[in-house]
UniProtKB/TrEMBL annotation:
All residue ranges annotated as the HTH rpiR-type domain in the record: 8-84
Name recorded for this polypeptide: MurR/RpiR family transcriptional regulator
Keywords of this entry: Coiled coil, DNA-binding, Transcription, Transcription regulation
Species of origin: Paracoccus gahaiensis
Gene3D superfamilies: Glucose-6-phosphate isomerase like protein, domain 1, Winged helix-like DNA-binding domain superfamily/Winged helix DNA-binding domain
């Protein structure tokens, strides 16, 4: 159940579940969250009548979103609206100054970071760090913007002497996954968690006995359900910026934290390898 007094978790959890609701369920949620007069005493019957569904349907949807019931959902929304979190994000408009644009873009990213930190499963984080530290082979899968995150992480790992293969071609993903085994780890990056090429590679990696870590924006996505461990970002949608821009920042921070945790597990070796890789490129810097 959601800790309803933490407004960062409230907005994040609702958004993470929305793509996996039925069209009717999503419409009911939009109707409820769109009510400007919603308060701590708004009756269930009034909400269900406005949404054109039964009381039982509203309760069912509230529970599907992770709340104990309608009252819990209602109270959480009231708390959410009483804070600055709900109003942090706003769309870019033609009249915005450069200062407005900077503020809105930065606030969107800061909100994604705050909310992601509030929902991040620390136990899952530790398990992921342990797996990556002890893996014989590390495969990173992603396409488009997700592939760029994978490359960034692989670069960091290489600096401390941990090699990772980054695959962004569907055939190469499957070929690489087919060669993994029980001592190996595949990290699958997909914002939506529904990218078929990434899911297919992750599934094959699991069939070969490898452990799979998912980096995604949705905890109930097909990729999350397939993975041994899912580490989720959360980002508010925007017609112009989309979710991906803010989620990319959050996912990079998740993996930065993973990198530090992995390095910490053998700090002496990590520092020695970091010195070696730093010295190797020192001659490429202009004096």
């Amino acid at each position: 159940m959601i800790g309803r007094h933490d407004p960062r978790r409230i907005g994040a959890q609702i958004r993470m579940q929305m793509p996996f609701l039925t069209p009717l369920e999503a419409r009911v949620v939009d109707t409820i969250t769109g009510r400007l007069d919603l308060c701590a005493t708004t009756p269930l019957r009034q909400v269900s009548d406005d949404a054109g569904v039964s009381d039982a349907m509203v309760v069912k949807i509230a529970k599907k979103l992770g709340f104990a019931g309608f009252r819990d959902f209602r109270e959480a929304l009231v708390v959410y609206r009483q804070t600055d979190v709900a109003s942090l994000h706003s769309e870019i408009s033609p009249d915005d100054s450069s200062a407005d644009i900077i503020r809105k873009v930065f606030q969107t990213s800061m909100q994604a970071l705050e909310e992601t930190m509030s929902i991040l499963d620390v136990a899952a984080f530790d398990r992921a760090a342990d797996l990556l530290h002890g893996a014989k082979q590390r495969d990173f899968y992603g396409v488009g913007g997700s592939a760029q995150i994978a490359r960034d992480v692989a670069h960091k790992f290489l600096r401390i002497g941990l090699r990772a293969g980054v695959q962004d071609d569907p055939h190469m993903m499957l070929m690489s996954a087919s060669l993994l085994g029980p001592e190996d780890v595949a990290v699958a990056f997909s914002h939506s968690g529904t990218t078929s090429n990434v899911i297919e590679a992750a599934r094959l990696a699991r069939q070969q006995g490898a452990r799979v870590i998912a980096i995604t924006n949705y905890s109930t996505s097909p990729l999350s359900e397939l993975a041994d461990i899912a580490l989720c970002s959360t980002a508010q949608g925007s017609p112009l910026l989309g979710e991906n821009a803010a989620a990319r920042i959050a996912q990079l921070n998740i993996m930065d934290a993973i990198f530090v945790a992995v390095a910490q597990r053998d700090l002496d070796r990590s520092e020695a390898q970091l010195a070696r890789t730093r010295n190797a490129v020192e001659t490429k810097r202009r004096r």
